[in-house]
Structure formats: C-alpha cells, structure tokens
Amino acid sequence: MSGLGDTRTARAAVAAVTAAQLAASDEPWQPDEPLRTRKEVNRLHRTEHRWAALFMAAPIIGFLAFTVYPLGYAIYASLTRWNGLGQMTFIGLENYLRLFRDQYFLTSLWNTFFYMIGIPIGLALSLLLALALNRGIFGQTAFRTIYYVPVVSSLAAVAIVWQFAYNGDYGMINQVLAWFGIQGPDWLQNTATVKPAIIIMAIWKGLGYSTLLYLAAIQSVPRSMLEAATIDGASAAQRVWSIVVPMVRPVTFFLVVTNIIGGAQLFTEVNIMTPNGGPEFSSATVVWYIFRQAFRYQEMGYATAMAVVLGIIIFVVTLIQFRLNRRNEFSVE
Questions:
Q1: Could you report the per-residue pLDDT of 174-220, keeping only the tens digit for each?
Q2: The total number of structural domains that make up the chain
Q3: Any idea what the CATH number is for the domain that residue 218 is in?
Q4: pLDDT by residue (tens digit) across 118-131?
Q5: Fewer Cβ in 10 A, N or C end of the chain?
Q6: Is there a contact between 168 and 186 (Cβ–Cβ < 8 Å)?
Q7: Is residue 247 part of a domain?
C-alpha cells in the first residue's frame, strides 16, 4: 500500500511542476505532433468511406446479380410462353391458372409432401443412434464412421445401388426376404411400394448427418442436470424425455427446417430410380416434373411458374416453422 501511495504522490508532483512551467511560459502550449486541420480530417473520412463502399459493393453486386435479378427474371418468365431460347410471349397468369388444372402437377405436389413422412422417422432414428453412441459402446468410432459414409457418398451412386437392391427379380432385398419364405414385390414398379422404397433410401442416406449433430448436442447437455434427475429417482427414459429431448430442440429445429427444404427439392433419387416418374406417376416430385416440362418439352415458362409456386410454398412453410419455434423457445438459467 505504501508503494502505491508513493507512486501517486510522484505523479501528482510531476503534474504540478508541468502545470507551473506552462503557466510561467509566455508561449502557448504546442503538441508534439501538429493537429490535423478540418480539411485533412474530411479527406481522411472520404477515403475511409470509399474503401468501405468498395468492400461492401462486392457482396451487394453479387446479391443483385445472382439473386435479385434471376428471381425477377424467373417471375417475369413465369408470365410468358417461352421455350428457353426463342421469343417470350407474355400471357399473364395463364401458366398459374394451368397449374391448378394440371393433374400431373397436383399429383407430384402430393408425392412431394408424402415423401416428408420420412423426416420425423429419420430424426427419431438419428436421436436413438446418437443416444446409443453416447454411451461409449465398443467400436464407437467405427460405428460413427460407418453411419456417416452414406452422407459423403455420391447421391447418384447411392441411388443406382438402391435401384439394383430394389429390383424385383435379382434385388438383394427380395433375396433376403426369400430366405424367410416371403415373396417380395417389384418395389419400384408398384404404386404401393415405390414411395416407401424411396423414403427408406433417403432416410438411410441422411441418417449419419442427423446422428452426428444429435450426438454433439447430447454431449453438450450439462451433466449436473442428468445427475440431479438421477438423484431424484428419474429413470433413463424419463431423463431422455424430460432433459435431453428439450435440450437438443435447437438441433431438431435446424434439421426439420433443412430437411423440409431439401425434401421439397427431391429430384436425383426419383430421376435415377424411376426415370419415368414411376408407375402411374406415383413417384414423381415437383422438381422432377419441373425438369421434365422445361428440358423435355421445352415449356420453360410453365416450368418457371411451377418453380415460383414451389418457392412460395417452401417460404411459407419455413416461416410457419420459425413462428412455432419462437413460441416454444426456452432458456436454462
């Protein structure tokens, strides 16, 4: 304490001597470096503003060129009759009115929503796998790698493999069923089985990604909460339902939103496994139908109208999800 008092006293003495010297001097005090004039300060600010505008211009120009302009052009193209190369003919809302009379579009829209049944199934399986992997089972690292391999595999290659597996004559799935005396169907040529078959493949493909995110979320749950619940007599199932599931809700929300957006754009699996849209158009999705109308029949204006409607549907569904998630937000103090 004495050293701190001496230091303060010394500083006060130096300040007093400096003030006395300045008071005795006839010349005004001058700083070591001359102050900038207002003109120099303004010039410096203008230079900073130019650099700031330059750095801001790149993302803004990119957004205008690659988002706003294509979106506006697509909306205009949806109001025309156009084959993608020739002259556009403005026809107003005719393409949009045609959508609701087009049975193929309505069927593909229904199929697209039907495929989303696999989202809650996949999330439930992912959560169960994450819980199992979190218990430190033997070969944990190997299992994590095995489950994640389909995620990094080519979607086209995976679809071809599953197409062979679903073959009604020599497919692996029917061969396994034959061991148990079960006659398997021709999965991709049957209206009752083609959509469930594609759903199973899609769940298998994305299982590792969801499991990895859930595993990271589970490992971030405070152990003190789980230990307190154990002391209070909660069973393992009760701890999972009352603590783990609410705590991983942000991950669940993220996966639901991204899976719905991705599911609404399902294309590669359908295009490879059922190139003609499946029996009686039972596997066709909206994106697949857009592709067919645009590049097989050169109805680019009509296809663009379908794309605009699909984009609006995705936006509305996502907005509803964010609203519902905001109501269910909670915090752990």
A1: 999 999 988 889 999 999 999 999 999 999 999 999 999 999 999 89
A2: 1
A3: 1.10.3720.10
A4: 999 999 999 999 99
A5: C
A6: yes
A7: yes
